[in-house]
Structures are given as structure tokens and as C-alpha cells.
Amino acid sequence: MSKILIVADHLDGQLNSSTARTVACAAEIGGDIDILVLADSAGPIAEAAAGLDGVSRVLTVERAENAHPLAAIYAPQIAAAAEQGDYSHVLGPNTTFGKDLMPRVAAKLGVAMVTDIAAVHGPHEFERPIYAGNAVNTVTAPDGQTLVGSVRCASYGAVGAGGSAAVEALSLDAELPGHTRFVELQASSSDRPDLQTAGKVVSGGRGVGSEENFKVIYDFADKIGAAVGASRAAVDAGYVPNDMQVGQTGKIISPELYMCFGISGAIQHLAGIKDAGTIVAINKDEEAPIFEVADFGLVGDLFKVLPELEQAVAK
């Protein structure tokens, strides 16, 4: 039977939903599922993790060095926990932080890793997208060593709450590097939902025209309670910061509703929204590739369409 260790993804004392999605992937593998929480104070995070369905135990490592998520600090501790607990699998979400962290864990354990797991065929056989999502690759990992993997969160729904796993403090003998230290965190603040986990997302592209014009996207998103994203073209043009980019080299998302304005639908962008529930596209170019994947498409000027949509929402 597999014994799976999941690295908890958390920020500001809150467990991110990517952890629950990773648990869903682990449940398909089968076996005992433990969650490892690294923090300076793990209480609320561990409590949330213990409530996830299917989790056997929550292991906590509380130390001052874990106050801020740093891949170089986390990796030796995760590797030590994996070896100490004799885990067959070590999984983490394929988020921006996970892409930095999990390869370090694999290197510490001396094994290769499977990235961006989108489906499970067996304990050591998985599907992962390649070529910007245009093809699916089936990979088989050796079964005689620990398997380190990152999970494509957009491919899994979050498991529900209702579990009652035990919470245990874990003592680790792990030497932490001194060459990496936390200086400060500079992050934009917003009252809007988180882009990576939001149920509704409104995105703008190059067709929006300017940073000033992006206000119409923000206003409409606020009216329907949606997060705001953007295409790479809009980010490269300086309309919005790069943490709003949706696509293969940005955030891969799976909202229930995805509405895009002025986005042509480059392959890179489509790779980030392929798991969305319903895609609504508004573009004045009737031959834009986005219409090939959209569930609903409207050919028109976004600056004329958006006011009409706002009026409809208001009613």
C-alpha cells in the first residue's frame, strides 16, 4: 500500500485550496495520506488540514525559520520527513511556489520527479500535459524509490471538509542552509478573489488597449464577484502586473466561469484555461482562435458589450 506525504500549501496562516486538490490526486493513488505543515505556528493551518476528507495524519514542524515559505528552507525538512516516515510518494501542488520547492525535494532525495500530474493510472503511472496542453504524455516512474510529484491543481476538485485526522508534532534532524534568508515580501493587495482558486474569472487581453482601459475589466469583475486575469500580451504591454497572467507561463486555472475580453486565444493562453467549466469569449475578430474553445462567443467591441452586460447584471 502506498504511503503518501503531502506538503501543505499555506500563506498568512491560512491553508490554500491547492492542498485539498492535491489530496484529491493522492486519493486516486490510494493509501495512507499524511499532510506535512511547516510553519512557525502551525495551529490553524494544521486544524484546517486535519479536517480534509481522506487525510490520516497531519504532521507539524514548528520553528522560526518556517515563518515565511522559502523553498531552500523547506526542502531539507521535507526530504528528512520523507525518509524518516519511509513514504512512497511525496506530493505538492504545481503552483508557482510548488514549482520552486518540489524539484529541490527530489534533488535532496536523489530521485527524478513527475511534474504537473493531471491524471492517475496507478501508483507509479500518470498523465501530464505537454506542448502547451496539445498532447498528453503518460509517464511511468520507477517503483523502487520515493516518487516526488507536483499536482496540476486545475485537474482536480478540492476534497471536502469533514475529516478528523490526528495532529502530531514531528521532530526532524535537518540541516538548514544559511545562504537563503527572508528579507521582505512585496505583494499587491486586493479584495477580489484569488485568481488561482476563484470560481469566476474575468480576463482582458491586448484588445483592452491600455492600463487605463483595464478599469472596465475590474469594474465588471467586481460586479459579479470575480477574480481578474490577463493574457500574456496584456502583461507584456504593461497593462497589468505579471501575477495576473493566465496561461502556460502564468497561472493555470479551472474556474466554473471564465469570461475573456479582447483575448485572441493564443495556444499559451488556452493551456491555462482548458479545465474551465464554461468559457465566454468576446472579441471583435470573428476568426479569433478563442472562439474555437469558447462555450459562448460574441463578436463585438468589448467597450460596447461590457456596459450592456453590466446593465443586465444590475437587473
TrEMBL record:
UniProt key word Secreted: no
Keywords, in A-Z order: Electron transport, Transport
The keyword Transport appears for this protein: yes
Boundaries of every Electron transfer flavoprotein alpha/beta-subunit N-terminal domain copy: 4-186
Family to which the UniProt record says this protein belongs: Belongs to the ETF alpha-subunit/FixB family.
Protein name (Swiss-Prot/TrEMBL): FAD-binding protein
Species the sequence originates in: Spectribacter hydrogenoxidans
